[in-house]
Amino acid sequence: DGGITQSPKYLFRKEGQNVTLSCEQNLNHDAMYWYRQDPGQGLRLIYYSQIVNDFQKGDIAEGYSVSREKKESFPLTVTSAQKNPTAFYLCASSHRTGSAFFGSGTRLTVV
Amino acid sequence: AQSVTQLDSHVSVSEGTPVLLRCNYSSSYSPSLFWYVQHPNKGLQLLLKYTSAATLVKGINGFEAEFKKSETSFHLTKPSAHMSDAAEYFCVVSEVRRGQNFVFGPGTRLSVLP
């Protein structure tokens, strides 16, 4: 089945730790995106990548980092510099035009 | 710059009655417009999309939306609400210039009362 897979579904982070969220797609999409969703709010763009080995900051990139070494993969690292990382994180992919397909999300909690 | 306004943060309807979720957008270019639905703790599912073809767009689960350029609106409707329609709905605008960028509205929570 074609789709976009995020893992893990739930993730717990201690203060000062870096954690990495995985996002993989087998849809042959060029573009991939990371969004953050907080309760009662819409989605805010963290980073996006239109092609391999290239990515751009979104609206709330501070405290996050990404890589795009393969077309299929776009991992997001939440660094210790992100002071309020508890949120629901959604990854998406798309062709250059057309709709975005979303993963099922990762819920990150700081403990 | 693109932007999306969803005029109602919460809409409540009775089962079997019509649904109207309102969306207005701002875009400098000819946009693509989408409606997505999100059930609790899930990812987003595409309901329908407008990409400069027919202005009345039919989607899944009986939803449809009409693109009105003069009003910069893309309201989502359904003739008869079902309990399973209770969810969060997002209106999204996209432009393709140097790559595609999706901009989300703040969402409308739909409650369906028995």
Model description:
- The complex is a heterodimer of chains A (111) and B (114).
- In chain A, strands 2, 4, 5, 6, 9, 10 and 11 form a 7-stranded mixed sheet that branches.
- Chain A is built from no helices and 11 strands.
- Chain A has strands at residues 4-7, 10-13, 19-25, 31-37, 43-51, 54-57, 64-66, 76-78, 87-94, 101-102, 106-110.
- Chain B is globular, with a radius of gyration of 14 Å.
- With 114 residues, chain B is an all-beta fold.
- The N and C termini of chain B lie far apart (41 Å).
- The model of chain B has no long low-confidence stretch (mean pLDDT 91).
- In chain B, strand 7 and strand 8 (64-68) form a beta hairpin.
What is the topology?
The complex is a heterodimer of chains A (111) and B (114).
Chain A: E1 4-7, E2 10-13, E3 19-25, E4 31-37, E5 43-51, E6 54-57, E7 64-66, E8 76-78, E9 87-94, E10 101-102, E11 106-110
Chain B: E1 3-6, E2 10-14, E3 19-21, E4 23-26, E5 32-38, E6 44-50, E7 56-58, E8 64-68, E9 73-78, E10 87-97, E11 99-104, E12 108-113
Parallel strand pairs in B: 2-12
Antiparallel strand pairs in B: 1-4, 3-9, 5-6, 5-10, 7-8, 8-9, 10-11, 10-12
What gyration radius of chain A follows from the Cα positions, in whole Å?
13 Å
Low-confidence stretches of chain A: none
How would you spell out the order of helices and strands of chain A?
EEEEEEEEEEE
Output mean pLDDT of chain A: 92
Give the amount of beta strand of chain B, in percent.
over 45%
Give the strand tally of chain A.
11
Q: Largest interface, per-chain counts?
A: A-B, 26 and 23 residues
Short description:
Chain A is built from no helices and eleven strands. Chain A is mostly beta strands and 111 residues long. Helix content of chain B is 0%, strand content 59%.
